[in-house]
Design goal:
single chain; alpha/beta; Rossmann fold; 2 domains; 6 helices; 32% helix; binds 5-O-phosphono-beta-D-ribofuranosylamine
């Protein structure tokens, strides 16, 4: 068997996306290995998840570092020492410096709980509700120097329902995050991602063109 793709998963909090990746690996549905989990918060619950599965972990408390680049230099050292090949940002609430990005060209991916390019940044479920969109969702994308601006790999769409709060919408989106993030990593591990500028092609995908309507059309 070919060598397993070595992942470095970066977290700041609950780590439910980390858990979905762990579960897919343990189920044999994702040929990858988590070589290192890094959290910038010592109390992140994701660290407990990693520990339960015997996955190496490192805490780099950003408060201990003089500036962003000093933090990123240590982060790079930790990931390179672990042999990481793909950096997976999973609820990691830090902006990475160009210095770090250059060390992993086209090898850093992020998940965002909105349909980019709508609603980049934070508190995006509330922003989607306030705007009144009928659909939201989540996006896995390559990381570039902007905030949530890199080329898009996969998106999932969910409806916004009457009576939704930021919490109910976030929960509906998170459920889909747990499906599309392992899928994106699988594409990567299988060498099926081809990036042409902003457009990302996934080799061996049958296109489907069904439209979604919310509310649904009258029959
Ligand atoms: C997810 O919604 C992710 O898209 C966002 O932060 C949340 C993190 O969830 N950036 P978790 O830590 O993976 O549970």
């Amino acid at each position: 068997m070919a060598d397993l793709l070595k992942l470095g998963v970066l977290i700041s909090g609950s780590g439910s996306n980390l858990q979905s990746i762990i579960d897919q690996i343990e189920r044999g549905a994702l040929n990858a290995k988590i070589a290192m989990v890094v959290s910038n918060h010592p109390e992140a619950y994701g660290l407990t998840r990693a520990q339960k599965h015997g996955i190496p972990q490192t805490v780099l408390n950003h408060r201990d570092f003089e500036n962003r680049e000093a933090f990123d230099r240590e982060l790079l050292r930790v990931l390179q020492t672990a042999g990481v090949e793909l950096v997976v940002l999973a609820g990691f609430m830090r902006i990475l410096t160009p210095f770090f990005l250059r060390a992993f060209p086209d090898r850093i991916i992020n998940i965002h709980p909105a349909l980019l390019p709508s609603f980049p940044g934070t508190h995006v479920q509330q922003k989607a509700l306030d705007y009144g969109v009928r659909f939201s969702g989540c996006t896995v994308h390559f990381v570039d120097e902007g905030v949530d601006t890199g080329p898009i790999i996969i998106q999932a769409v969910v409806p916004v329902l009457d009576g939704d709060t930021a919490e109910t919408l976030a929960a509906r989106i998170l459920k889909e995050e747990h499906k599309i993030y392992p899928q994106a990593i699988r594409y990567f591990a299988e060498g099926r991602i081809v990036k042409n500028g902003r457009r990302v092609e996934i080799k061996g995908i049958g296109n489907h063109d069904a439209a979604l309507c919310n509310p649904p059309l009258d029959r």
